[in-house]
């Protein structure tokens, strides 16, 4: 009987050790969760802070991200993929090795945090009365003061009334 008691003690002891090892492994595999905005938002913020027309280089963007946010272990893959997607969608333009945020995207991104202004101008009331029937000024051929070919200001570059350079063959 003593042999059966020792075998039962060994089996119970070994099973508790196995369970303890499993729980230790579970504790070790927990990853540190980092709460950050999406990489798109982080890249937009980095590009909005610059006032250079040239934009920011990839290492400069990375430095900005590392200074302002705590990045996870696999951040480099997500950063490169997001930046490539933004360039492909034409939200960010790449000139040589620098990245510049599109003007529309910049205004839209900056406007998110700000409150929209109310329109303080009064709206003009439309005429609710019916339109007068009769002869009106139409767009037909007639003697009206309308936009047409005739005397008037042209789209010339000069200030005076003189004619500009004529294009064509020169006369000797």
Automatic annotation (TrEMBL):
<protein>
    <submittedName>
        <fullName>Fibroin heavy chain fib-h like protein</fullName>
    </submittedName>
</protein>
<dbReference type="InterPro" id="IPR036388">
    <property type="entry name" value="WH-like_DNA-bd_sf"/>
</dbReference>
<dbReference type="InterPro" id="IPR005818">
    <property type="entry name" value="Histone_H1/H5_H15"/>
</dbReference>
<dbReference type="Pfam" id="PF00538">
    <property type="entry name" value="Linker_histone"/>
</dbReference>
<feature type="compositionally biased region" description="Basic residues">
    <location>
        <begin position="21"/>
        <end position="33"/>
    </location>
</feature>
<dbReference type="GO" id="GO:0006334">
    <property type="term" value="P:nucleosome assembly"/>
</dbReference>
<feature type="region of interest" description="Disordered">
    <location>
        <begin position="1"/>
        <end position="33"/>
    </location>
</feature>
<feature type="compositionally biased region" description="Basic residues">
    <location>
        <begin position="112"/>
        <end position="172"/>
    </location>
</feature>
<feature type="compositionally biased region" description="Low complexity">
    <location>
        <begin position="1"/>
        <end position="16"/>
    </location>
</feature>
<dbReference type="GO" id="GO:0000786">
    <property type="term" value="C:nucleosome"/>
</dbReference>
<feature type="region of interest" description="Disordered">
    <location>
        <begin position="103"/>
        <end position="172"/>
    </location>
</feature>
<dbReference type="InterPro" id="IPR036390">
    <property type="entry name" value="WH_DNA-bd_sf"/>
</dbReference>
<feature type="domain" description="H15">
    <location>
        <begin position="35"/>
        <end position="103"/>
    </location>
</feature>
<dbReference type="GO" id="GO:0003677">
    <property type="term" value="F:DNA binding"/>
</dbReference>
């Amino acid at each position: 009987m003593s042999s059966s008691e020792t075998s039962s003690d060994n089996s119970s002891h070994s099973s508790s050790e196995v369970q303890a090892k499993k729980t230790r492994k579970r504790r070790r595999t927990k990853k540190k969760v980092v709460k950050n905005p999406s990489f798109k938002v982080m890249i937009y913020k980095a590009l909005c802070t610059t006032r250079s027309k040239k934009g920011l280089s990839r290492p400069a963007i990375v430095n900005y991200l590392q200074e302002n946010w705590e990045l996870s272990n696999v951040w480099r893959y997500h950063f490169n993929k997001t930046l490539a997607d933004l360039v492909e969608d034409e939200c960010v333009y790449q000139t040589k090795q620098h990245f510049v945020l599109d003007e529309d995207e910049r205004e839209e991104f900056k406007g998110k945090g700000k409150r929209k202004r109310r329109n303080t101008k009064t709206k003009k009331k439309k005429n609710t009365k019916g339109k007068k029937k009769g002869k009106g000024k139409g767009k037909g051929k007639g003697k009206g003061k309308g936009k047409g070919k005739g005397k008037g200001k042209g789209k010339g570059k000069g200030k005076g009334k003189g004619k500009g350079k004529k294009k064509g063959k020169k006369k000797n």
